[in-house]
Design goal:
By secondary structure, this protein is α+β, with helices and mostly antiparallel strands. The protein contains seven helices and 13 strands. The longest helix is centred in the N-terminal third of the chain and has 31 residues. It binds FE2/S2 (inorganic) cluster.
Length: 352
Amino acid sequence: MSSQDIPEENLPAEQDTEHGAVAVADEENPFADPGLPPHEHRIQDIDARAAKRSERTVALLFTVSMLATLGFIASYVTIPNDRSIYVFPIGHISAMNFALGLTLGVALFTIGAGAVHWARTLMSDVEVADERHPIEAAPEVKAKVLADFQAGAKESQLGRRSLIRNTMFGALAMVPLSGLFLLRDLGTLPGTKLRHTLWSQGKLLVNMNTNQPMRPSDIAVGSLTFAKPEGLEETNEDFQKQIAKAALMLVRLQPENIKDKRELSWSHEGIVAYSKICTHVGCPISLYEQQTHHVLCPCHQSTFDLSDGGRVIFGPAGHALPQLHIGVNADGYLEALGDFEEPVGPAFWERG
Ligand code: FES
């Protein structure tokens, strides 16, 4: 079909150098504007029968909408208020509410669907470039603003009343100081408090649920186990403070599934131990996806890969989960081989 058969409004705009035109990159201009891609006609642009079909589809959708509206009115008038029907899987609900919701939903949906289909298939799809107007104000506007400002300054006698002017500037300059002093309420700097947890060489890993020291055989492949350091009991006065730093999660991986091989020397028989505290803003991580070895923080969906050094693979967390170096003592119980080597939890100003 020739371009004479195409409706005029569907013909592509001429490409010129001003509106998205193709420009050739050279040494002076290495990032030349590539221009718009060539215009592709839709089937409706070149086939009158396809256009007619689209027209009928749109009309059909609008007709269905009208029928649904009539159904809405009929439902309202004819269905008794107290009649109920069974709708799987919801159960028994008011028949009138169901009919009203259904008909109104269909009426609105088909209007939307008709409008979208109309726009996508029949309305003009010619791409145009709209140049922005200059941001700088016209000289006469600038002159007027300046004149207004000078008139205002004169009327307020700012230039003549130097005492008022200077004290006003002094007051404006000092007001923000009150805000600065309030910063003190953020508390004292944490110093080394955030750098150390209760984990240390030889500290046994105690199951958070059973309160019993753990053996490697207690940790099955595919399960997520939470642990705390031995001696930390809920009755301790500072339990919340300590567990917020020392909470640990353990998973057993097949050694061949461990991507970051540095993990192997820190783990025991494929059991890896990571801080349970999210490195975004410190929520406890709790969701483990067995197939991928990903753990998910429920607060803002940060996702960490436990088979790859606790690396962040999604979400706002800023750094990987710290790993705890673990081993087994002479009695066969899992133990820590030291503290975390970096602070657990979110970033803070002294983290470095
Ligand atoms: S605290 Fe974990 S993603 Fe925000």
